[in-house]
Amino acid sequence: MALLDYELTQSVACLQFDDGKANVVSHALIDALNEGLDRAQAEAQAIVLLGMRGKFSAGFDLEEFKKGPEASAALVNRGGRLMHRIFTLPMPVVAGCTGHAIAAGAFMLLACDIRIGIDGPYKIGANESVLGMTLPTFASELIEYRVPRDRLDRVVLKAELMAPSAALACGFLDEIVEEGNLVEYAQEVAANLAAYPGQGYAGNKHLLRNGFASRILASL
Fold it and tell me: What tens digit of pLDDT does each residue of 169-190 get?
């Protein structure tokens, strides 16, 4: 199976990534997603981003981190550029969170416009404090944009990996649906957004996010 499956249905491009393991954010995944986003921007009016069954993404590729600080920094920087791209795309991006979304997986969720999850024994969150790591700027800016202020300490300092219902209250998800309805519903939401007239969607996205996006870009 290819790392990324691309399917265009009318105005919506569905990008589903699956590495057959933990769905980590690796150099290969970043390359595949960027290629898929290029194609979607040329062919579609909205995007649905899906992980594999049970896992949206378990975070950055730890095998790359084992190569040392330079390799780690290179991957995190490329991941940050991918998150920035998703966050600033001038078209709707709907995430279908298919399961666990941890660290970089959670940040990818935060970068999308609409985040739809499923109920189940899944964990979502940023566990960097538990690992003795400081969040990269792109992650902290996405958290600042999405997470309610009274839940920031729970999300960042406590570094709680939470069930989908708690992730909903903490800003990682917008809503939760039955697993069997996830793909169809995400595509429906994306198609509805794709039908908005003119450049209002892109302009208002820029208006809301430009300050956060500028600080992310400056840090990379």
Answer: 999 999 999 999 999 999 999 9
As given in the structure block, the two tokens for residue 18 are 């699956």
Question: pTM for the whole thing?
Answer: 0.96
Q: Using an 8 Å Cβ cutoff, are 127 and 161 in contact?
A: yes
Half-sphere exposure of 62 (CA within 13 A, CB side): 9
For residue 93, give both structure tokens. Answer: 């991006």
C-alpha 11/C-alpha 8 separation (Å) is 7
Each residue of 99-140: pLDDT tens digit? 999 999 999 999 999 999 999 999 999 999 999 999 999 999
Domains of the chain: 4-219 (3.90.226.10)
Joined tokens for residue 63: 């095998």
CA distance 175 to 60: 25
Question: Do 120 and 162 meet the contact criterion of CB atoms below 8 Å apart?
Answer: no
State how far the Cα of 58 lies from the Cα of 82, in Å rounded to an integer: 16
Q: pLDDT, tens digit, for every residue of 20-63? A: 999 999 999 999 999 999 999 999 999 999 999 999 999 999 99
